[in-house]
Amino acid sequence: MKVNQAEFVISAVGPSQYPEDALPEIALAGRSNVGKSSLINCLISRKNLARTSSQPGKTQTLNYYKVNQDLYFVDLPGYGYAKVSKTKREQWGKFIESYLMHRETLRLVMQLVDLRHPPSKDDQAMYEWLRHHDVPVLVVATKADKIPKSQWPKHLKIVRETLGMDKGVQPLMFSSELTLGKDELWSILEQAIAYGEPEPEAAEAEAAPIETIKEANEHEPS
């Protein structure tokens, strides 16, 4: 997809503030500081549209970014940050859960994990929850530039096994610094939103993302 226009639209705190133009939505979930904002900026070839923060846990809303007239990226609050109170974490959890289960225009969740480290218990819980509720999910392993290339296969295997991903399904390796995985990720996102398909076919494609993602996201670690 060629990005001609990208803009921040709203920081939503509830369904009444969600956009009503029925564009497909791609949500980004992950621990604080896993690189969600950097990934968005990389995909749209902008440096600072999605603001990165040095303070984990700062994002407390659903941040909507509109790309062309084709889709929204929806940046979810980061999970697993210890300095956020238990009450606040529970509020975020219910808020995010409601969005993920009931938002009709949601087409895919990109769950970001840090390639350098085994997925945390929060990462595992999120992945299991998404799979249990049949929410289409793509695991994106970020910060690949932070470890030697020779270690990539080992770390991808750890991510896959720790999350309990199905056989033949691999995390997509990504680096915002190297733009590694950018084209492959866009290809998967285009399939998820049925980009470029005629309108009637697009409706039929809504149920397809899980399988198409499995096929499109197969790596063969060397």
TrEMBL record:
The keyword Nucleotide-binding applies. SUPFAM superfamilies: P-loop containing nucleoside triphosphate hydrolases. InterPro entries: G_ENGB_dom, GTP-bd, GTP-bd_ribosome_bio_YsxC, P-loop_NTPase. This is Probable GTP-binding protein EngB. It comes from the Bacteria. Keywords: Cell cycle, Cell division, GTP-binding, Magnesium, Metal-binding, Nucleotide-binding, Septation. Belongs to the TRAFAC class TrmE-Era-EngA-EngB-Septin-like GTPase superfamily. EngB GTPase family. Pfam families: MMR_HSR1 (PF01926). Residues 22-195 form the EngB-type G domain. CDD domains: YihA_EngB (cd01876). Necessary for normal cell division and for the maintenance of normal septation. Its cofactor is Mg(2+).
